[in-house]
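Obj: model holo form, ligand = pyridoxal-5'-phosphate.
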Amino acid sequence: MKPNRSSLTNCCILTIFIFALTSTTLVTVTRAFTTSSILSSASSRTLSSSSSSTSSSLDAVTGVTRNPNFSKLAGGYLFPEIARRRNAYIEAHPDMASRIISLGIGDTTQPIPSHILSGLEQGATKLGTKDGYTGYGAEQGQTLLRQRIASVLYQDRIEPDEVFVSDGAKCDISRLQQVFGSQVITAVQDPSYPVYVDTAVMMGQTGTQDSTTKQYQNIVYMPCTADNQFFPDYASLPRADIVYFCSPNNPTGAAATKEQLTSLVQLCKERGSILVFDAAYAPFIRNPNVPKSIYEIDGAKEVAIEVNSFSKYAGFTGVRLGWTVVPHALKYSDGTPVRNDFNRVMTTAFNGASNIVQSGGLACLDPEGMKEIDTLINYYLENAKLLRETFASIQGYKVFGGTDAPYVFVQLPQGMKSWDAFTHILEKAQVVTIPGAGFGPGGEGYLRLSAFAPRDKIIEACARLKVAL
Ligand code: PLP
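Output (holo structure tokens):
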């Protein structure tokens, strides 16, 4: 007997209804069970640790305790904070939005030159061919690129297998912190690129930040101001295990001479410190007495790691390619080569830089690529010169840096606070700068200006600054 159509439809509706009811009940029961187990595990942990925080753990979404190192971090990372203030200004003054000129974050603006670009293009094209396709590569980078970095940029002072190619210097600094762990004492230039301090805090190397001095416990701050030509007196400060040193410097624009670096290497050797030398701005060096690499200094291989990057060489800030040199001769107190542990982190927590991008890196190191880099850097250095001249012409302001670096560091008139100067310049000239205090307490009273903007913007900003200040 054929079932009639309406009884079949009724039967289907009933089945769907029962299924829906069962699933809803199941989901509800599962959810209730999960929530109650989270709450009971969170509250039992709370009860055993402290009864005063019971209410906050009841509000918790999960039962996971926050990594306490993160709550020690004071404020957000500097550059998002600058962007936040700039956006707040635009929101309050929408008519000014198109007038904003950014001399803040050190991001490149000029297009990638043609030969270097062709390297990136070839890298991508190869991936579409049977013979040229490659998948995962060596975590340490392509052999040819490591060889070319060692020969072209270091004149074979280092071995290719001491070079680790990466996705950039910032990431490498963080991976170095992973290698050093939570028990080391870190020293930084004050002011300095914020990544050294913030990653040290995240790793648990520090105590909390003192609200008055704005310094973290367990970090050795090495003042670098106009009074000491922006070069630290490490000998007069407590010993640190790891000393971060950046030359040419972000933010001060100071570039350490051969004599200064020789004394620093010597001192690190005497005190048994490891020097992490950040050479991200090396291509800006024009002074022949300023080394482009720490390995130009005798004995540096036994104390120094160098982090570096194609970001500022070739406008690769968005492309992402860097490298770190860890010499075989650099050893821990028990004789273990530091390189072994860095290699372990690179092979475990990193999977190699993009093969397309490494092809771009190889093009950078061709003679044509190196010529293009020089032209690009000269353009930014000319911008820096215009910024220097502008501040030199404004009474009460003193200007530093900008000759072997893309950053101009301006000393404000006596008593002027750097965040106040930042706000004043944003409001009166619609120019975004970076307050020196954002780079550490030693930067108070200074302002950093980046020369990475397009030339017409630099000229316009200089004209406005002369009127506003
Ligand atoms: N080191 C310093 C001193 C920097 O100023 C920067 C970026 O501004 C970096 C490293 C980051 O380089 P990368 O783009 O390779 O991560």
